[in-house]
Design a protein that fits this description.
Layout: H1 23-35, E1 59-63, E2 66-70, H2 78-85, E3 104-107, E4 110-113, E5 126-128, H3 130-133, H4 141-148, H5 158-171, H6 177-183, H7 194-215
Parallel strand pairs: 1-5
Antiparallel strand pairs: 1-2, 3-4, 3-5
Length: 216
């Protein structure tokens, strides 16, 4: 049986290549365009890979009462040191811009955003993370209050809220609702549990006041 011959299949030229131009030549042309930023003319400049600048000297800081020496660039965001080097995963990465509050920790008792605070800013100072407040066996009154009030839904933002509240109660043991809202204005809860968070902070404030009275 006679089989009809198939016509040659047309091929689409490489983008930007003329018909008949080899794929290798076209790829080389595109590479030159990429190196020159699309400008015509001779390729200029040294394209050798840049060497990474040397690490800064070891930086010392205290985290949750323990002294640490960290060898890292001075401008490394503190959150990376806490999470990756010290394995403290409680502070969460949210926006990376210091505007959502997820990564809040205490630096000498003051609330700061660890995603936008460089390691150098913590040198010689004391950092407290959510792990440093308490644990399952002996939770901090704030941690217990957030559990009792079921303040979390997804829970992702809660470590930041708790650390922000700890800074607030450290300077104002009995804040009003307006003072709570003002102090935590930066913090975002995507689940919208703000009322329960306020109740938890008020509950913790009362519990801490009672604890102080018993110790007096």
């Amino acid at each position: 049986m006679r089989v009809a011959s198939q016509p040659a299949r047309a091929t689409r030229p490489w983008p930007g290549a003329r018909t008949g131009q080899s794929g290798l030549t076209a790829a080389l042309a595109l590479t030159i365009l990429a190196l020159t930023g699309g400008r015509c003319g001779r390729v200029r400049g040294n394209f050798a890979p840049r060497e990474r600048p040397p690490l800064s000297k070891s930086i010392g800081l205290t985290v949750n009462g323990a002294r640490h020496e960290v060898a890292a660039d001075a401008d490394t965001p503190l959150i990376y040191i806490l999470r990756n080097d010290l394995n403290l995963k409680g502070n969460r990465f949210g926006c990376g811009e210091g505007v959502c509050g997820c990564c809040t920790v205490l630096l000498d008792g003051q609330a700061i955003q660890s995603c936008s605070t460089p390691l150098a800013a913590a040198e010689g100072r004391s950092v407290t993370t959510i792990e440093g407040l308490g644990d399952g066996a002996a939770p901090h009154p704030l941690q217990q209050a957030f559990i009792d009030e079921q303040a979390g839904q997804c829970g992702y933002c809660l470590p930041g809220f708790i650390m922000g509240a700890a800074a607030l109660l450290g300077r104002n043991p009995a804040p009003s609702d307006a003072e709570i809202a003002s102090a935590l204005d930066l913090h975002l809860c995507r689940c919208g549990t703000y009322d329960r968070i306020r109740r938890a902070i008020r509950r913790a404030s009362q519990q801490m006041s009672e604890n102080r009275e018993r110790l007096a």
